Amino acid sequence: MNLSNSVSCSHCNLVFDKSVMIIDGKNYFCCNGCKGVFKLLNDEGLETFYEKSANTMLTPPSNQYDDSLDFDTESFRESFVQVDSDGFHEVSLIIEGIHCSACVWLNEKALHKMQGVIEADINFTNNKAKIVWADDIVKLSQIIDMIRSIGYNAFAYDASIQEIYANKERKSYYLKMAVAIFASMNIMWIAIAQYAGYFTGITQEIKTILNIAEGVLATPVLFYSGWVFFRGAYYGLKNRVVNMDLLVATGAFSTYIYSIYITVMETGEAYFDSVSMIITFVLIGKFLEVLSKKNVADTLDVISKHIPSEVNIIIKDKIVSVKLDDVKVGDTVIVKSGEKVLLDGEIVKGKGFFDESNLTGESRPVEKKIGEKVISGTTSIDADIHYIASRDFKNSTLSKLVTLLESAINTKPKIQQMANRLSEHFSSTILLLSILTFFAWLYIGYDFETSFMVGISVIVIACPCALALATPVATLVGLSLATKKGILFKEALQLETMAKVDTLVLDKTGTITIGKPEVVSVQIYDDFDIASLYSLTKASKHPIASGINRYLKEKNENIDEIIFDELVQMSSLGIVAKYKTERFLGGNLKLLEKSNISVDFKSDNSLFYYAVNNKIVAIYELSDKIKDDALELVRSLKKINIKTIMLTGDNRSSAEKIAKKVGIEEFKYDQSPEDKSNYIDLLHKEDKKVVMVGDGVNDILALVKADIGIAMGNGSDIAVEVGDVVLLNNSLTSLHNAFKISRTTFRLIKQNLFISLVYNALTIPLAMAGFVIPLVAAISMSLSSLLVVGNSMRIGYKYKKG
Predict the structure, then answer these.
(1) Model confidence at 18: pLDDT above 70
(2) DSSP character string of 553-591
(3) Which of 7, 69, 57 shows the shortest CA–CA distance to 32?
C-alpha cells in the first residue's frame, strides 16, 4: 500500500487506501458500519470513547448490512430480493434472537401491523422468515428497523454462510452452559453440606455463610447464563406479550430475591440452588432443541448450500469461467467427471452416467447420451460433457427446487396455526394460576415461604415450548424425508391436507402408464405426404403425437419438415393445420366427429386418426406400457381406504383395458379438461377429499380444483407449476410414499400435541397441589420439550415400519 495515499479510519483506526474511503465531513471511514457506529456514539454524547481507546485498533463491524438503509441498495436487491407476479417484493431473512414460539409470534404480529407488509411467516425450527411487501408503501429498511426495535436482528438468508451464524449461536450457548453447569455443580456441593447440617445440626452463622457462597455462584448463572430469558421477557412486556421467557425469568428472579432476603434476615431456607438449576436445565433443554432443529434443517439446506458460484462455458472456442447467474440460454456449458450440473440443458458432446438421487431419490446411476437432457442438481459420475443450456439459473430445476423448499418450510399447517393460537394465551394463564396458587396457600394457613415456592413451581413447570414445537419440528422432518424420496411438497400445510385424503384420481397416459406409447399397428387408406404428418405430430407435446413422431422418424431417415400456414392445438382432441390449399387433422375420434368426418374402426388400443381435406388417410394404433408399480399402488391404497379413480381422454376400450390390468374399478373415458374438472367438483359435493395426479396440459384444471394436485416431474412445465406436490422421479411408488409420509407426519403431530397437553394437564395441578419443587419443575419442563422433539424424529422409523 502507498502510505502517502492512505488514511486511518476515524472509528476503528484501520489504515486503508484513500480510493475506497467514505468521507463524512472531516472524518474518514473504511466502511458504512464504522460510519454508523461513529455517528451513534457522537449522537449519544459518548465521543470520549475515542479518547479512552487511545488509537487502539478496533474490530470493524462485521455485518455488511448494519445500516438498515443498506437493505434498500441495488446490490442487495439483486442478490436477495425477488419480485413476484403481482409486483410484490419478497426476501428470505434469518431473525437473530428467536428462541421460543412467543418470539416468532411477536415478530410476525409486529410486521403484520406495518402498512405495506403483505406476508410475514417465520419458521421456528430455523428462524428463517419469508417477508412479502409492497415496496411503494414500505421499504425493506423500515421492516428491518421494526425487527430491531423489538429486540431482534435480521440479515439476509444465504445457505452458504448459514453455518457461520449457526456456529456463533452454538458458541454462545456453550459459554452460557459452561458457566451455568460449573456454578451449579459447586452449588450442589454446598447444598449437600446444608442438607447434612439440616439432619445433624448446623448453626445459623454457618448456614448464612453457605447461603452467601451459593448466592455468589448463582448470580452469574442468573444474570449471564439466564440473560437471554430476561431480554426476551423485557421485549415481550414492551410489546404486551406474556411469553415463556417471562415465566422462567419471573420464577428464577423471584426465588433469587427471596433467597437474598432469607440470607440477610438469617431466617428460613434460601433456594439459590433452585435458581441455578432452573436456569441451567432450561438452558440445556433450549440448547438441545437448537441442535435438533438444526439437524433437521440441514437436510433441507444441503441442496442449496453446495451450489458453486461459477461454471465453465465455451466462448469463441475458449473455455471461460463465468458467474452462474451470467449464463444465458444457448450457451455451451462444460461439466467434468464428479461435478454438479447447475443448469438444465441438452447434451451435444460426450456421454456417461449421472447421479440423480438428490432430486429423484433413485440411487441407481442414469446414462445420458448426445441429444438427451441433463437436469440441474444432478452430478456427473464419469461423464465429461458439453451441453447447451436450455434455461438460465433462476429458471432452472435446481433453483426452483430450492425456492419451493424454502416456501414449504415457511408455511404453517392449519394444526400448527391452532397450536400457536393456543400457546399465545398459555403463558399469561400460567402466570395468573401461579399468583392464585400463592394466595390460595396463604389463605388456607401455610406460611409465606411454602406458598411462595409452590407458586414458583407452577410457573417453572409449565411448558409452552412443547406445545410450540409439536408441529414445526415434525413438519420439517416430514418435508426432509419426502425430499430424500424425490417428493416435493410446495407448502407444509399440504402434508396435513394429504393425510386426510380419501379419494385418488389418476390420469392415464404418463401417470398410470409410462407415457411413451408405441405404434403397434397402422391402417393406410390413401396415399399422403409423410412430411405433413411428421410436422403435425412434432408440433404437439402429447404422448400419442410424440409416439407417432418417433415411429415416423425410425421408419424414414430423411424427412423434410413443413412450416404450416396455420396450426391450432385443440385440447384433448388433437391438431388442425393448413398448408397452401390442404387441411390436415390429427387426433382422436371426437376431433373427427367435430369436423363431421365419419369412421368405423374399433380397437382396445389408443387410436390416432389422420385426415387430409376431411378424408381419413391413416389410423395409427398405439399401446403404452403400464408402470410396474401401478398395480401395487392401487392395492396398497385400497388397504388404507383410499378409493382410486382413473380419468382419461382416451377411448372406452383402451381405458377399460388399462383399468382392468391395474385393478381400478371406477374410470371415466373421453374426458376433456373441463370434464375432468367437473368430475372433481362432483367428488367435492360428495364431501370427498381428493388428490389429482396428472402430467399434461389437459390435467391443469383438475389439478387446480383438487384438494391436492400432484404433478409428475416429467410432465409439462405448466402442470408442474400448478401442482401442489411434484414427484421428481415420476414413479407411482413415490406417490405411495407421499401418502405414507403425510399420514405418518400428521399422526405424530397429533401425538406431540397430545403429549404436550397431557403433560401440562398433569403437572400443573401437581405443582399447584405442592407435590413438585422448583428443581424438579425445571427438569420436567426441559424434558417435555425434548420428548416432543424426540418423538418427531421417529417419523423416519415409523415410515419404514408402516
Answers:
(1) no
(2) HHH-S--PPP--SEEEEETTTEEEEEETTEEEEEE-HHH
(3) 69
- Return the sign of the alpha-carbon dihedral for residues 14, 20, 22, 25: positive
* Residues acting as catalytic residues: 507
Amino acid type, 738: A
**What's the one-letter identity of residue 559?**
I
**Identity of residue 347:** I
Interval 231-259: pLDDT, tens = 878 877 776 777 667 777 887 888 898 88
Can you read off the three cell numbers belonging to residue 308?
A: 458453486
Instruction: Quickly tell me which residue has 411467516 as its cell.
Output: 121
Q: Where is 432: in which H helix or E strand?
A: helix 426-443
CA atoms within 13 Å, Cβ hemisphere of 500: 14
The rounded distance, in Å, linking the Cα atoms of 578 and 718 is 27
> Cell triple for residue 627?
408402470
On whether the CB atoms of residues 251 and 278 are closer than 8 A, the answer is yes
pLDDT above 70 for 52: no
69-78 tens-digit pLDDT: 888 888 788 7
3-state secondary structure (DSSP) of residue 324: helix
> Which residue's C-alpha cell is 458458541?
171
End-to-end distance of the chain based on CA atoms, in angstroms? Answer: 67
Q: Are 510 and 695 in contact (CB under 8 A)?
A: yes
Bridge partners, residue 319, by sequence:
314
Read off the pTM. Answer: 0.59
Q: What is the DSSP code (8-state) at residue 198? A: H
Closest-CA residue to 222 (of 726, 514, 214): 214
The alpha carbon of residue 167 and the mean position of all alpha carbons in its chain are separated, in whole angstroms, by 21
